[in-house]
Amino acid sequence: MHGGGWWVYAWGGESDKDKQNVTWPLVKRVLNYARPYWGKIAITLVTILITTGLGLLTPLIFRDLIDNALPQGDAQRLNVLALGLVLIPIAVSLVGMYSRLLNAQIGEGVIFDLRTALYNHMQRMSLRFFTNTKVGELMSRLNNDVVNAQSAISDTIVTMVVNVVQVVAVLGVMLTLDWRLTVMSVAVLPVFIFIARKRGGSLRGIRRQGMEYNAQMNAMMNETLNIGGTLLVKLFGRGQMETERFANRAGKVRDIGVQEAFYGNQFWVIVGMVGVVGTAVVYWVGGHLVLDGVFSIGTIVAFSAYLGQLYGPLQSLTNSPVIFARSMVSFERVFEVIDLPVEVVEKPGATVLQDVRGELTFEDVTFTYDTNADNLLSEVNRPGRMENVKNALSLDTTNGKPAKPELDVEAEKPYTQARETALDHVSFTIKPGQLVALVGPSGAGKTTMTYLIPRLYDPSEGRILIDGIDLRDVTLDSLARQIGMVTQETHLFHDTIRTNLLYAKVDATQAEIEAACKAANIHDFIMGLPDGYDSVVGERGYRLSGGEKQRLAIARVILKNPRILVLDEATSHLDSQSEALIQDALKTVMDGRTSLVIAHRLSTILAADQILVMDRGQVAEQGTHAALLAKGGLYANLYETQFKGERELA
Q: pTM score, two decimals?
């Protein structure tokens, strides 16, 4: 064998793009996942041989019963043969049960290995991977593709081995009985294969269409039944419209399902008819041979029984290449994720950060969001899968084509923050314990700067240092322990308040949890809930208000007790009471720590030891409030437009 395609299925009805090449390197890699289970696979093969051998005995018992026991009136022989007819199926069932148990252990083991390998690799991917990948696609890799992939090892390969062994064994026994009837039995196979090509191709086309309809329906459910989608539907009163759209798509799934069932039944009826013809030919020719005294009645009865054991496996083998190739495509999709290079890599022998003082330095840092798709998931084509699921929600129900909005391109573009380089040669130093405020227009690069500190991304140029050590020279875990972030969009798991807080420190005591919540001004609120700290926050924390979620996030950071704080002080959407509570909590959490804050409040700016004014990815101005105000530059303009009114209200 070689590295090229060694097995291509094209049973008819498949376009060139649907034909899948199964290469030997891919098969070898798949077999590596079966390596831990070789012992169980070997035992499974032994059970296959046993059940196949036992299955071959039953027709021979019938022959002996008809040719010897009954004509000779041998009661003892009859009793033994009858007992054999009972014991053989029992033995086959018991061995089969054990074989299925082994098969399940192999299959579930492969699923476990693939899923954990996938999940572990995803945990190591940079933030760019997740911002450019659909969640549904990742879930598909972890669920559908993993399950489909394991079937290649636990089901398809095993089934193929069973069928091949059975076909060879049955043909061997049939040849010993009579070679002429064996040749006639096999002679009908070309007709069977021809029908399989014609009807099988049509059936696969229907299945492919059914999977497309299912993809559209599932995409709609995924978009409209999550929290955000449900909220949007209700706010715009589109419940009835979405129900009608769903009914339309579900109706297509129903109709194609009925069509598939009809054609599938028709296919198997025709296949069954071929088997009937083959059996009739054997009885007809064999009957004449019996009349001519060539062999006995028992032989022809045994022969007809073997025909069923022959046609069934051959029928299954005709579909095996299709099933196996599709399983290989699923393996390819799983391997595509595992093979994606990790962008943020921990250097071998990296330093463990200890006794951190908290000095943070940016040295000529430039960062550009990589638009190269080489390190991202591709749209892998597989039989029966929609080529374009991106537009699954925007399909025009009248003609089934995606709606294409017209773009309004302005002739003159105003001054904006739009650019290719997110950060452009940024340099500054924050001394231990200092509070630095980041201000600037939206899109100036403030959030990007904060993402570089915990190594969610790495700089394209330059370097970032903590206490003089390059972040790329330290271990990722020790870096994460030293940095605490509170983002503008607080994420909470659909679990209890206690579980969400323990995410910061898994061994925290109840006293430590309560102390952190008191410091964040959220303890009294939690104790007022019916279940206290065991209250479930709901999907993404939707049962809590914005201020409550932010105070929980602050409590979580206090519990973590990092040396460096990175905060997005977003309080503009909160009521005055929540804002005041959060401001007090922020003062507590920043006390004595190095803090970099995207400032939205004048009070934070006035308290800052240093202000960095960002504009188009650069530090346009740097200094204290008074010095920057006196300079009369960008900061002074921001103060006049955004912050001055806040002081007047105060």
A: 0.72
